[in-house]
Amino acid sequence: MKIAVIGTGQVGSVLGTRWAHNGHQIVFGSRTPTSQRVLGLVEKAGPNATATSPAQAVMDAEIVVLAIKYAAVETVIKQLGDLSGKIIIDPNNPLNGDVSGLTLGTTTSAGEEIARLIPQAPVVKAFNMTGAIGNMANPIYGDQRLSMLICGDDEQAKAVVAGLVTELGFEVVDCGPMTSARYLEPMAMLWITLAGKMGLGGNIGFRLLTR
Amino acid sequence: MKIAVIGTGQVGSVLGTRWAHNGHQIVFGSRTPTSQRVLGLVEKAGPNATATSPAQAVMDAEIVVLAIKYAAVETVIKQLGDLSGKIIIDPNNPLNGDVSGLTLGTTTSAGEEIARLIPQAPVVKAFNMTGAIGNMANPIYGDQRLSMLICGDDEQAKAVVAGLVTELGFEVVDCGPMTSARYLEPMAMLWITLAGKMGLGGNIGFRLLTR
């Protein structure tokens, strides 16, 4: 698939690189597409990856990943132009400045706000609730896979994103409509708290067990 | 230990019965301690269990479990009298009327509100984030244990509660201070959404994997 990864931080770098290695066409959208850092990322991602401006990156994309800071989302969405016909992946969390909590929740979520900002394209919440460097790079724990919880209001878009999640090694758990982002975003803060403050480090993650 | 279980709904019934079978002294606190239903519960829980009024139940207890509806917590706490020297276990979630969401969160939590209502005793959040009938009755999934996420500001109290959680078969995950209840309570809504709306049923639960 043609995937625009907007943002080249941890989440965007890991996802874009892995999907490029899987054979997808990746365009990283960056404010500094010719910087040494982004060129290095493109080289690591291999022949299926390029980098350009955010607005250029989305033009031919079927999938757009908003791997940017939540505070920047509204501004960046305006720069991206018409997103009709594309599927938007939202890995955002409304983290506060010192990553000690969330700035919104309970009665709304970053996912719902982003869906409101992009009424012309389906938004799927994914890749928000676990670590990028360790877990998105490799979600296999012995003979088990981490769960990736996703949600969204468009079933077809969610099925496409579920495929992109599964091919990275996660087990997809569909958590229903975008309102469930109210639960997935606090789960990110839980992961951050356990990995950081509680000292467990990045090689931890949740799996939904069934019997 | 001497444990007062206030409330005889699903959570209180399962926890009290299992701890009674483990040899703890359980007093169920109920508005109707001589009703057929509560007498049946006491009989099922066995010789280590009795039932009386909430205020009587807590008098000799070392541990008090507030297994009641969150909306009733403030009223019930007032009825319980002096709780100094006891450890309070809070399994509450601030569920709205139709269990479709939470009534508070993001910047506070039921756990923090309850801790404010009981300044004279340490409150530990536990048993809020998974199902009672299936998972608290039996948290073993094949060769794995479900995680029970707990939090609270008193390390000694948390260690005592961790013991009570572990003996039921859970693997305890300490999520830090009571502010983490802001993340554990949405996780309850997530479990409710998956078990109910998404049709997965009660035999599902989260485990924190490590590698």
Biggest sheet features of chain A: 8 strands, mixed
Instruction: Report mean pLDDT of chain A, rounded to a whole number.
Output: 96
What class do helices, strands and sheet pairing of chain A give? alpha/beta
Terminus-to-terminus distance of chain A: 35 Å
Oligomer: homodimer
Helix percentage of chain A: 25-40%
Indicate the low-confidence ranges of chain A by residue numbers. Answer: none
Helical stretch count of chain A?
A: 8
Strand order of the largest sheet of chain A: 3-2-1-4-5-6-9-10
Describe the structure.
With 211 residues, chain A is of the alpha/beta class. Chain A has helices spanning 10-21, 36-45, 54-58, 73-80, 110-117, 132-136, 155-166, 181-195; strands at 2-6, 25-29, 49-52, 63-66, 87-90, 123-125, 140-141, 144-145, 147-152, 171-174, 204-210. In chain A, the strands form two sheets. In chain A, strands 3-2-1-4-5-6-9-10 form an eight-stranded mixed beta sheet, with helices on both faces. In chain A, strands 7-8 form a two-stranded antiparallel ribbon. In chain A, helix 1 (10-21) links the parallel strand 1 (2-6) and strand 2. Chain A starts with a strand and ends with a strand. The relative contact order of chain A is 0.14. Chain A binds chain B through residues 101-107, 141-142, 144, 146-147, 149, 173-176, 179-180, 182-187, 189-190, 193-194, 197-198, 200, 203-211, and chain B through 101-107, 141-142, 144, 146-147, 149, 173-176, 179-180, 182-187, 189-190, 193-194, 197-198, 200, 203-211.
